[in-house]
Amino acid sequence: MKPAKLRTYVDLMVAEVEGYFARWGQSGTVDMKQEFEQLVTLIASRCLLGEEVRDKMFGEVSALLRDLNDGMRLLTILFPRLPIPAHRRRDRARARLGEIFSDIVRSRRSSTAGRDGAGARHGDMLQCLIDARYKDGRATTETEVAGMLVAALFAGQHTSSSTSTWTGARLLTNPKHLRAAVEEQARVLRRHGDRVDHDALASMDTLQRCVKETLRLHPPALMLLRHARRSLVRAGDQREYEVPEGHTVASPLLLHNALPQAYRSPGEFDPDRFGAGRGEGGGLAYTAFGGGRHACVGEAFAYMQIKVIWSHLLRNFELQLASPFPETDWTVVMPGPKGKVMLTYNRRKLCKESVLL
Q: Has residue 150 got a pLDDT over 60?
């Protein structure tokens, strides 16, 4: 995603985050995973898909996305149509999402038809998909656009909400790094006039490293798959390996992100490993967002929205993990925290001169 375009999204992200957490009371206990699922869906829909989609997020669509994710299990890879309850819920959710988004596409098309510049005023991904043309000049259909909307929300919502939850669990069980992240908020906001904008977020290096280290330990996918369009030979430690043309290469993220030759004490949560003077995990030793020519195009967007969320929480709340550190749910294609992840919060009385734990 281009930096100029990302800048235009920051104010929308901040507004969604501030509005969402304004509904929290002075203190309480919430399921962090559920809260972030809802919030990330709102952010992604507002920034990428427009107000029509965002306005439907709080209710039905958020629940449908949850059913869709739950239906993407490891078993699904081998038996995608096995008649189990999770697959039935998945199929019902996908059909209903298709109906909702097709209605939105139809409404957007009718509202912009024949009006010069109407589509340009929207400027979101929904409008780009509606205006897109294939090489032969054919326009996209309602069904095609709806399918791409479902894919975009599904891919971005689960991975970012899961990473936001893991980031919280890691920070709240590592006081040293939590304090460093909170103290950074005070420094950055003093420099930027108490305003959270693109430049302020970009300068939150400590928080960036905390999210990056969280992704190393908890990548949002089990592996990357690549199709070999031609035969390749690559050198290993003691021999050469051939990848024949037409074969699929599986690259396990968990193994790459924990290579002992690339990381010191790879099992530990240590965001400083990405700081100046250490520079661990270079090249394809870090693959949380893929690598090479086909790295995830949403990486910068994902980092920015997670940093907006945690910048707000660190500045405005005292936080404590109220449940044990979560286990990983290995039964789904995109593993996330298993079960509820409970968070206890108390709203801070902020002082512009300092932010304290």
A: yes
Q: Which residues are annotated as a binding site for heme?
A: 296
Residues ≥6 apart with Cβ < 8 Å to 63: none
CATH number of 170's domain: 1.10.630.10
Sign of the four-CA dihedral 29, 30, 33, 36:
negative
- Binding site feature residues: 296
Looking at residue 138, the DSSP 8-state letter turns out to be P
What's the start-to-end Cα distance of the chain, in Å? 35
Total tally of structural domains belonging to the chain: 1
Tell me whether residue 202 is in a domain: yes
The DSSP code sequence of 142-185 is HHHHHHHHHHHHHHHHHHHHHHHHHHHHHHHT-HHHHHHHHHHH
255 domain residue, yes or no: no
Q: Quick check: 48 pLDDT over 90?
A: no
- Please give the Cα distance from 117 to 113 (Å, whole number): 10
- Residues recorded for the chain: 357
Beta-carbon count within 10 A of 328 CB = 15
Task: Return the structure tokens found at 61.
Answer: 């669509």
Q: How would you classify the pairing of strands 223-227 and 248-252?
A: antiparallel
| Residues 126-135 pLDDT 10s | 888 888 899 9
Share of the chain above pLDDT 70, in %: 91
Left, alpha or beta for 28 (phi > 0: left; psi -120 to 50: alpha)?
A: left
